[in-house]
Amino acid sequence: MSKPMKPLHYLIAVPLITLTTTICAQTTYSRVSLRIPREGLAWLQAQGVEFDHGELNKEENTFITTIDNKALAILQKTGVAYSVLIADEAAHFQQYARKENFYKQPDAIMLNGKLQFESPCGSHLTNVAVPAGFIPGSYGGYYSWQEIQQRIDSLVHNYPSLVQKIVLPGTSLEGRPMIVVKISDNVATDEGEPEAFYTGLHHAREGMSMMNLFFFMQYLVENYATDNRIKELVDSRELFFLPCVNPDGYRYNETSAPSGGGMWRKNRRNNGGGDYGVDLNRNYNVDWGVTGAGISTSHDPGDDAYVGPSAFSEPETQAIRAFAETRHFTIAIDHHAYGNYYVTPYGRPANHSFTSPDLSFYSYASALMARYNGYFAGDGMATVGYYAVGNSRDWHITGDIGAGTKQKTYGYTVEVGPGNAGFGFWPDPENIIPLAKSMFFANLQMAYMAGSYFEVQDMNTVAVNTVTGNFNFSLRRIGITNAPVTVSIIPIENIQGVGSPVTVNSFANYFDSVQRGISYTLPATLAAGSRIRFVYQVNSGGINQYDTITKIFQPEAVFSDNMEWTSNSNWTLSGAWGTSTGSAYQGSRSLSESPSGNYTAGQTSTATYNSNIDLSDATAAYLSFWVRHRAENAYDKLQVQLSTGGTFQPVCGINTVCEDVGTLGNQPALTGMREAWTREVIDLRNYLGHGAVNFRFRFTSNSSDNADGFYIDNIEIVKSTLQLLPVRFISINAVRTTQGAQISWEAVTDNNHDHFEVERSDDGAHFVTIGTVAAGAAYRFVDVQPGAVNYYRVKAVDKRGRADYSRMVSLTVLTAHGIQLYPNPVENMLHLRFNLAAKATVLVTITDIAGRMRYQQSVVVERGVTDRQVDIGQWPAQVYLVRTRNLQTGEERVFKMIRQ
Questions:
Q1: Does the record carry Cell inner membrane as a key word (predicted)?
Q2: Is 91 helix (H, G, I), strand (E, B) or coil?
């Protein structure tokens, strides 16, 4: 039995110098795990063991790849130790390709973040809801060529205002159509919006490259009506999808391996002499046909990397060229399988150079796309171990610019999925959805970055110490399109007023940034320790982004360190931890796990603060610091860990990643690359009431490569000890009675208490006093003229005129489509009470203030009173909108709900 493989850390393939895969009856492909010889993988190729994709495990010194039976025979003769993972990939796939294995996970919710669809404290990959219309295909779970056409027609039929079918002029060699899907609002009109281009199946045996595009397309159209983020994206972009670049090769796989798993790669050009096919991703005209050391190309018609008789010799690549010359693509992402990496230009770097904005784009975009799936990124040599010339990504960025309307387009190649058992060229059906989910965030961010897109960052500390001032922020251009952007502040809590929005009309270069501020005024009587909350709204090019910010007014400073030291008794440092002059947010030094250079492989080290943090009297507390980093994505990481006397536990912040990829193990950590200084903020709510909290930074690296590491600056912990309610309210409720709305409450008062005032609002923000209840009286009040939607709170006033408030509750006057939400505000379980005149199905949708959908469920409601519950205990504390729609009557209602 072969030794189980550990997770693979780096992805590599070696040059395709003479990759021979002439398909004949006896050709089979095996997936093997081989021990890398001392002479290296290039030596194996020189012996005739030829392969393209593969995964390298540096810790195990092993390499997983797919080879044909000829190469396997040569491998046996070399004496290199190996084990066969899958003897016949096509047969293996056919054995496990059962339609019932194509499963759907329950729909889930997407969390908030500074960028659209970020998930800092939960798994993004598991939280992507599976589109209802993403169904299995008949070709081993994948769509057949006929089903590809049917699925496109279905999208057009079901969403005619959003989806357009475009049949490109000309056909494939065997006469099949090249079909592009366009998704946009007013889809039949060219509105001059930013354009992105997605392609799949350049190589016919890479079915996952097509399936994940259908997943993404289906998600966009299904969520258009319910998720405002998706609506804004579709309304402001023109997205083009070519799911099958190579219809002839794909159809040939169906005929040669009818049950699935066909291993044909090229198109079906008859090259003569029994050889067929051209590698379409070697047929573009940038550096076409160049040969040399480390270059994957072949002029042998029998090889899998055969470049064709000339550049753009194939009708399939000609069709893409002609189409691009009629468009204005800014981004093009070409999907392949397998390897878990993103490949950037160029295939011949000696012939080309990046501009500074080019470097900024590929650096930032690569890190962003890989944030949750743990993919590696770089050029061909850095990722797959060879350079591929004549490829689509190089042509997009530099080829034929100015021909027609073709412009410089930032091109990418993505290799979807790993190579271990169950994955490879044809992942088992049960892995289709997880892999499609793994690419969702990347595909989405490419669509956003095709146009005007920005990253906003709050620049102030958690502490706000004056009642007037500015909330300062930085704004960085991360979209390819240069367009004006406006930043506004939406007050949520304890803000009396804010200044006018700020507009920046232009950012000359990609990744340029500015710092601005918007004035604020707090209530003059705001108590020290009070919570302040607001939202940054960033609007540009039809896209609205929202970032909710929490601060504390005049908090108590618990701890701070600006790292301007060379030795410090406040810290216990292990490994190489120390201060560095290599980078600093402010001053001249920062804390780093590798202050003198790159960190080492196989490292575990900590920086532990020696003193206890006293949160015994805290009602709120936050840890914040500035950080920038370069680390092997998903494998080398920094965790903030806290302890109350036992085991240290990692905690999540606004920038952490929490996925089951690499070495993360679903534990929150900072990993990958952030070139710009970024503020990390951690809510310490789970440690309130503890008098001896310890914290540390823990860095770990795996046993392979190293990088520059992490820099940390300006650490601080603040807390509030404010008891927000001097009068301790035990409960407050609002119910409908025959007299009106009865508000009742229980409270513990002291001798200084004078009276209560009952206040009402119809929007949850602007309140008026509707009654007074004297001290000693029963704690209830009847609102005899309630509105349709009512928000109530009770104001406690003492004998000196000082006041504080209870929490807010809401009451909806029930109608034929009646619903009551309680409690409101809510901490954990939201209750929905329906009171209908007739049985009906009610669609309940909950969104945040940005329109991001957090929950959607169809509820069958019987006549009379029906109760339902929604667990929102893990949702961010903010305002939400609850929308209900009676599917029988069409009646709709909207309610405001506050998660506190």
A1: no
A2: helix
CATH among 2.60.120.260, 1.10.10.60, 3.40.50.720, 1.25.40.10 for 557-718: 2.60.120.260
Quick: pLDDT tens for 348-394: 999 999 999 999 999 999 999 999 999 989 998 888 777 899 999 99
Helix (H, G, I), strand (E, B) or coil at 16: coil
Asked if domains 454-551 and 557-718 share a fold, the reply is: no
Catalytic residue among 55, 222, 415, 593: 415
Residue 26 and residue 869: Cα distance in Å, rounded? 60
Give the residues across from 626 on adjacent strands: 679, 713
Q: Where are the domains of the chain?
A: 136-449, 454-551, 557-718, 725-808, 814-900
C-alpha distances in angstroms, 164 versus 61, 168, 246, 332?
Answer: 49, 12, 21, 19
| 645-672: pLDDT as tens digits | 889 999 999 999 999 999 999 999 999 9
Question: The tokens of 530 are what?
Answer: 């009070």
Distance of alpha carbon 248 from alpha carbon 246, whole angstroms: 6
Q: Check: CATH 2.60.40.2550 for 814-900?
A: yes
Instruction: Say if strands 163-167 and 179-183 run parallel, antiparallel, or are unpaired.
Output: antiparallel
Active site residue 415: yes
Question: Residues 190-215: pLDDT tens digits?
Answer: 999 999 999 999 999 999 999 999 99
Mean pLDDT of 128-134: 92
Q: What is the CATH number of domain 725-808?
A: 2.60.40.10
Structure tokens, 287: 């550096």
**What's this model's pTM, rounded to 2 decimal places?**
0.78
Say which CATH topology domain 454-551 has. Answer: Immunoglobulin-like (2.60.40)
Q: Which of 7, 6, 2, 4 is nearest to 662 (CA)?
A: 7
Reduced to 3 states, what is the DSSP secondary structure of residue 511? Answer: coil
- Tell me which residue of 889, 100, 811 sits closest to 430, measured CA to CA: 100
Distance CA(449)–CA(477), nearest Å, equals: 9
Distance of CA 89 to the CA centre of its chain: 32
The encoded tokens of residue 152 equal 């496109």
CA 303 to chain centre: 38
Strands ordered across the beta sheet of 728-736: 728-736, 741-748, 780-783
The third-level CATH classification (topology) of the domain covering 136-449 is Aminopeptidase (3.40.630)
269 φ/ψ angles, rounded to the nearest 5 degrees: -60, 135
Q: Which of 772, 852, 689 is nearest to 228 (CA)?
A: 852
Reduced to 3 states, what is the DSSP secondary structure of residue 263? coil
**Across all residues in the chain, what is the average pLDDT?**
88
Measured distance CA(475)–CA(220) in Å, rounded: 27
